[in-house]
Specification:
Double Stranded RNA Binding Domain, 2 domains, 233 residues, single chain, four-stranded antiparallel sheet, flat, alpha+beta
């Protein structure tokens, strides 16, 4: 079968165009995109701690108003499901977290959400009490338990802040190892209890722990050597 010259030229042109290499498009990495933001966890934690300390200085058993809670009463259950009292005296008090968050600092609210009284589906705190046959006493006890729970969260979550004077004394102690601990203690009129307190705080610092131990051992050995020489004389 013969083909015309025009058909042969057209076929060759189509084959040539199909074999051309397609150049890849530039990747998105060449674009000038903004990088991810960085956040300081330490500064945020310290800010939360400071806010909690300030709030706690004015915290009392009336800080959380009773009106934001809702209390219902049911019969107390005994062995075998029997009702202990004829009247419904068991108090079941619920605080919406939305209301509590408007009163409590964020670090305390987080602690409540991690606690056993938190009801995730309702996003609320629920506390029950049936220790008394009196509705009023049981209701007040639920509020008292929430108050104690908040105090416990603060105590176990928010670290204490050392006074400026204490920080300066500790700094002076750690930055003046050549002076000797005993001279420092005598110069600052520090007794046994206060000395133990400062040494315990210093030992928490990993960088100073080894140096402190070595210096204490060296001072003890030096004192023992001097005592021994005095006896030999």
């Amino acid at each position: 079968m013969r083909y015309s010259s025009a058909f042969v030229k057209l076929t060759a042109k189509l084959l040539q165009s199909s074999l051309q290499v397609v150049k890849p498009r530039p990747l998105l990495s060449n674009l000038d995109l903004p990088g991810p933001k960085s956040y300081s966890v330490q500064s945020t934690d310290e800010a939360e701690y400071e806010a909690a300390r300030k709030w706690h200085s004015e915290f009392n058993d009336s800080t959380i108003p009773e009106k934001i809670a809702k209390t219902t009463y049911v019969h107390s259950g005994g062995a075998g499901g029997q009702k202990v009292n004829k009247t419904a005296s068991k108090a079941n008090t619920v605080w919406p977290m939305k209301e509590l968050e408007a009163i409590l600092p964020p670090i305390i609210s987080k602690g409540l959400r991690r606690g056993t009284h938190y009801v995730k589906n309702a996003d609320a705190i629920q506390i029950q009490c049936d220790s008394s046959r009196s509705r009023t006493k049981n209701q007040k006890e639920t509020h008292q338990r929430l108050y104690e729970e908040v105090k416990h969260i603060y105590k176990t979550t928010v670290p204490g802040k050392a006074s400026i004077e204490q920080q300066q004394r500790v700094k002076h102690l750690t930055e003046s190892p050549k002076e000797g601990f005993k001279k420092f203690f005598r110069a600052n009129h520090m007794g046994g209890k206060e000395i133990r307190k400062y040494l315990k705080q210093l030992r928490r610092d990993k960088e100073n722990k080894k140096r402190i131990r070595q210096q204490l051992v060296a001072e003890a050995n030096s004192e023992a050597t001097q005592t021994k020489r005095g006896r030999n004389k």
